[in-house]
UniProtKB/TrEMBL annotation, chains A, B:
Protein name: 2-succinyl-5-enolpyruvyl-6-hydroxy-3-cyclohexene-1-carboxylate synthase
Residues annotated as domain Thiamine pyrophosphate enzyme N-terminal TPP-binding: 12-124
Keyword annotations from UniProtKB, A to Z: Magnesium, Manganese, Menaquinone biosynthesis, Metal-binding, Thiamine pyrophosphate, Transferase
Gene Ontology molecular-function annotations: 2-succinyl-5-enolpyruvyl-6-hydroxy-3-cyclohexene-1-carboxylic-acid synthase activity; magnesium ion binding; manganese ion binding; thiamine pyrophosphate binding
Domain Menaquinone biosynthesis protein MenD middle: 199-393
Source organism of this protein record: Vagococcus bubulae
One GO term (biological process): menaquinone biosynthetic process
Residues in Thiamine pyrophosphate enzyme TPP-binding domain copies: 429-543
Top-level taxon: Bacteria
Length: 571, 571
């Protein structure tokens, strides 16, 4: 058999494995060495492929697809630095437990370490950032080796979805000539089905938990990446126990569309001034670490029984106060609890949180609603979301403002962020991956100028696939978060040089660069109006703000809440 | 002593080590965790610092500085994906033996693997792509630990320069509060001097080499990254032996300003048709692997004695035909040879190469010099270079066209490229690193649209530091090289989707985005005129070309040379 046929069969067997493992989306970057993988995958009827020129953006685009589909997504690139560009997205996928199947083409063994072009050591290239690394054998014409390639494909794809989920890496050495025979059918291999189980507790344990939690003053704290299918169950449990739920915006509970009295949205503000005064007997945390610093500081100060529920079992307890680790699927745990007798705590407990929420809300509504501040932009963004929309929130200030202000909404919509490693790289590309899910859906990205600048090349995908993303760019000419941190005390020149780091980039030109509709916003009402219109195409909405002014406004708001709390509670 | 003071002393001791090891340039990306390193390094009078928001670009900018200064350059970033963005530039530095000292800030040990924000496993983050990884201890207030930090700094920086040179990585765990006391003087440590030796051969060996090479038909093949101080010596030796020098453009021999008869520039063309007809007894190769595929194919077909001279001793012999590895400094080897009796081979040997060069040149001069083709752009670029200018050539087609056409020049100027892993990422940033060396110098970048697109964010440094780089952007709307490879045989839609991958980006907007002067070129004479004017600011010169048309023109030129060679030599 010719080299072309055996290589084609071998790669097709691998692809059959990826498909049987669950791959339905792939992001391919152009290159020569990866030719057989790209062509054969691109031609699969089962797989939707996207082509992204910049591998760094491609990695994050795949991450977005994986987030929104909750499925393994394949990444394909050529050899050399192309593969190195995936490391940021792979690191984020590893920390946020998303299944990526990374396929890097490589020179065959005889061309390695010999000065052959575009060749570097790709073995274990991503080190500890992937769950598994496989160096594939060279293609061979034998039934056994086709089966081997198939097995590597299906096994790696499955492993990426086994808990804890995460990225896997297959390095594929390929010999020239690289063009496959794209008319060959896939070779026949012995196919494998996979059923992936979840972690479940015994009835004895959940009995004991329902006893331990009954008649106690407890709180539920829910961080990012909470299992969406468990939200209703958690609210049911919280209502039975009379416990408040302090839910991060990325837990998607505040925007689940169920206005339960137990959801307390303004903890990020009141917990700044009410730490010792709120002392639960029991704390139960779900999801990843919450964004809110006051919440995390409060958790670290508590001495009650602290249960951490993790389906991925990662022991993410930065508070060091955890007393019990519960390695369990959330749906399973909460369903079991609902079948037990859960006894509520005294009414006053939940009332305390409701009073505090009311107090914060009153201070919020006193703010000037006509001034186009960063928090007002955030508010208009969530107020104008409609049913089933998607919102991606960038790191640094956008997620923090959203955490502070987001109320419990009537409208149900989804909020996403990159909270694995919290980078400001690849944000736009991740949001575009979400938008690719469904062109009828309204997808928004709330982002600052530094993060938007960092992933300028990512916008090529918005243009190429006309992805209907609305980018709300809050341009305060640099890194706004540093005005909220201790670095602000530095001499101005040092602060501006090293931290504020204005890029001076004009984003109107960025929009034009990609033929994307652009609007500059000058009033709250204009922002309302523009966001109330849906768009089926990508568009850029830029709002210019002042870093220092906004930092001051946030401080003033906190000061007002502090006074109100001192007046009503701490006197 | 306060945490602030001991952290400041500890980091200052580390920085003293970097300086004593030879660091004079640093590229810093903004971030919070890296605050003490950034501030203290930024304030060092001995070190020039550059601030680059995008860490991927920052890595390549540092690579450019390291290339042009031949010195270790420090990179500083915060924790998380920021650090992951360095991998492409580190991979290139590793393959091209450039000393980078990578300093990544990290959370302290107690916050790792706990869900603390922006935290991932940074130990051995760059795996095999760095020469050395050091996890620094946490700062402590003790003379011993200051000495330890100093030693790690000076040792790592020194190791990056010991042969084979390459990048090193120091991971620095830092506890809050992060603001250093920038008034503290550096602590007193025991300082170390380092003298780094070179690899030298014994006189017996060089005696034997001069015997082996005398009276033989030999060729010198010189690849990229050749030691510039050895050029004159190599030309002297070649003239004594009567051997041709086949020198890659990146060996900087064709542009050394010494028009020796031994330098044969057009091998990339004539070796396509004259392989078996040119059979040297001795081949001596210096530098990294040459770009020219015909040259490499010819080397693989030869059966003569094949000497590979490597100062970095990497055994880069993709031809598999090497018979002798010479691990030696080039200057030392060539100086020793010049002191021996070197006997020239017969005159006809060099004459053969000169006749072939003449034949190729005649065909070149027959081409239409008014048509704005990609090769004509390349020609105008080198024809208008002036003494001591710098030219950075992108990978893919620009370096190949330059290799084919570049004659032996009267003018001396330097040519650089990223030929370690040959990526099309980070090209602009590397060129900007060169331009930062000297603002009086004329620095040019010859680049295609895909590579230019890939590093769009890199241009922020051109704006910020007003680096006088002239970017000659050859825009053929996609990956031109694939029209020269076997992929061109694919059906048009598949070819366009997966390989040509037009981004459709308008670079005029990219230029405006950064306030960079922009000119679009429509004729050869206009290009001549624009390039003949020097610029002290960054500028963008865009030339639109047609991919297919240019691929055809290259093929036609080769066809004409082939006919001429068949007529004169192979009949």
């Amino acid at each position: 058999m010719s080299h072309q046929s055996s290589m084609t069969n071998y790669i097709n067997a691998l692809i059959q494995g990826l498909i049987d493992g669950g791959v339905r989306q792939a992001v391919i970057s152009p290159g020569s060495r990866s030719t057989p993988v790209s062509i054969l995958l691109h031609q699969c009827p089962e797989v939707t492929t996207y082509i992204d020129v910049d591998e760094r953006s491609a990695g994050f685009f795949a991450l977005g697809l994986s987030k929104v589909y909750q499925e393994p997504v394949a990444l394909v690139c050529t050899s050399g630095t192309a593969a190195a560009n995936y490391l940021p997205a792979i690191s984020e996928a590893n920390q946020s437990n998303l299944p990526l199947v990374v396929l890097t083409a490589d020179r065959p063994h005889e061309l390695r370490d010999s000065g052959a072009p575009q060749t570097m050591n790709q073995l274990n290239l991503y080190g500890a950032q992937v769950k598994q690394f496989v160096e594939l054998a060279l293609a061979e014409d034998s039934k056994e080796m086709y089966q081997y390639a198939y097995t590597q494909g299906v096994k790696s794809t499955t492993l990426s979805q086994v808990l804890p989920m995460g990225p896997v890496h297959l390095n594929i050495p390929l010999r020239e000539p690289l063009l496959p025979d794209n008319l060959l059918p896939r070779p026949i291999v012995k196919q494998v089905n996979t059923f992936i189980g979840k972690t479940e507790l015994s009835s004895e344990i959940t009995n004991s938990l329902s006893d331990e939690w009954s008649n106690k003053k407890g709180v539920f704290v829910v961080g990012p990446s909470f299992n969406q299918e468990a939200i209703n169950l958690l609210i049911d449990v919280s209502e039975k126990l009379g416990w408040p739920i302090l839910a991060d915006p990325l837990a998607n509970i505040r925007t689940f569309g169920r206005k339960s009295e137990t959801i307390s949205p303004y903890y990020d503000t009141y917990l700044r001034y009410m730490k010792k005064e709120i002392t639960p007997d029991v704390i139960v945390r779900f999801g990843k670490s919450p964004v809110s610093k006051p919440l995390n500081q409060w958790l670290s100060s508590l001495t009650g029984a602290y249960y951490l529920v993790e389906s991925q079992t990662e022991w993410l307890d930065s508070s060091k106060m955890m007393t019990t680790l519960i390695a369990s699927d959330e749906v399973s745990l909460l369903s079991q609890l609902l079948s037990k007798e859960l006894l509520a705590t005294e009414d006053n407990w939940l009332k305390l949180f409701k009073t505090l929420d009311k107090l914060v809300l009153e201070t919020m509504t006193k703010q000037d609603e006509t001034f186009l501040s960063e928090v007002m932009i955030t508010q208009v963004v969530y107020q104008t979301m409609t049913e089933n929309d998607q919102l991606f929130v960038s790191n640094s200030m956008p997620i923090r403002d959203l955490d502070t202000y987001l109320p419990v909404m009537d409208t149900r919509f989804s909020i996403y962020g990159n909270r694995g490693v919290n980078g400001i790289d690849g944000v736009t590309s991740t949001a575009l991956g979400l938008a690719a899910r469904n062109k009828e859906m309204n997808t928004r990205l709330l982002i600052g100028d530094l993060a938007c600048f960092h992933d300028t090349t990512g916008l090529a995908m918005a243009k190429k696939y006309q992805l209907p993303v609305t980018i709300i760019l809050v341009n305060n000419d640099g890194g706004g978060i540093f005005s909220m941190l201790s670095q602000k005390e530095l001499p101005k020149d040092l602060f501006d040089d090293l931290f504020a780091t204005s890029t001076g980039v004009t984003f109107e030109h960025v929009a034009h660069m990609y033929d994307i509709e652009y609007v500059s916003i000058h009033s709250v009402s204009q922002l309302h109006e523009v966001l109330s219109k849906k768009s089926t195409k990508p568009r850029f909405i830029e709002v210019f703000t002042n870093r220092e002014e906004n930092a001051d406004m946030r401080r003033q708001f906190q000061e007002q809440v502090k006074k109100a709390i001192e007046r009503d509670f701490l006197c």
